[in-house]
Amino acid sequence: MWAFLLSAFLHAIGCWLCVSLMLYLLFKPEKPVRLPGIKIQGMVPANFKKLSQKLSDIIYQLLLSHKEDLKVQVTAPEKMDKLMPHIESHIDFFLREKLPKSMPMIAMLIGDKTIGQIKEVFVTEIKVLFPELIGQYMDGLMEDDRLYPLLTEKLQSASVLNYVTAMKSNLSKLFFKIKLGAFVFGLAYGLLISWIIL
Rounded CA gap, 130 and 104, in Å? Predict the structure, then answer.
């Protein structure tokens, strides 16, 4: 009976240790440790450049494939409606403050009613023009040759690597559940093997 339980317990400890070591080697050691004839480094830090390159490929392809959806979202009427009060206040400030200083002759010719009419024409035109301009800007941004290298460079930066390795602490609950699952599996496996052999 004791051999039966001891075998099950040893299998459980073995599974727990194997899984713990595998999870540890995902993120640690961050810098390569050289032992005689072997180099040990965490899988994520060792392959970080490849992983970030793949991730930048995925993000860039997603951006390109959803370019039209992004344009629709960014230029949605409700988004423009939120911007319009700011735009109107800038137009008003321009017509009432900046224009008279730049061109005093025009300031003498136009009054509040004319300023209101000009402002209304500008706002109407901007409501039509602004979404088109943003759409064209986004098209240019997506076709810019610098976007992909910039995305790759930012994803390969040291701060992202620090974030990824720090993520290990955020995953501690998940890692504990995985280790516990390995322990239970090892215990069940050990009991089954002991029952078959003994």
Answer: 29
Q: Look up tokens 């390995």; give the residue.
A: 182
Q: What span, in angstroms and rounded, lies between the C-alpha atoms of 23 and 27? A: 8
Dist CA 32 CA 42 (whole Å)? 8
End-to-end CA separation in angstroms for the chain: 9
What are the pLDDT digits (tens) for 172-182? 888 889 999 99
pLDDT cut 70: percent of the chain above it: 93
Q: Which burial class, exposed, middle or buried, applies to 186 when counting CB atoms under 10 A from its CB (0-12, 13-18, 19+)?
A: buried
1: helix, coil or strand?
coil
Q: Which residues are CB-contacts of 28 (< 8 A; sequence separation ≥ 6)? A: 42, 165, 168
Note if the pTM is more than 0.85. Answer: no
Cα 68 to Cα 63, 76, 133, 135, 138: the distances in Å are 9, 12, 14, 9, 9
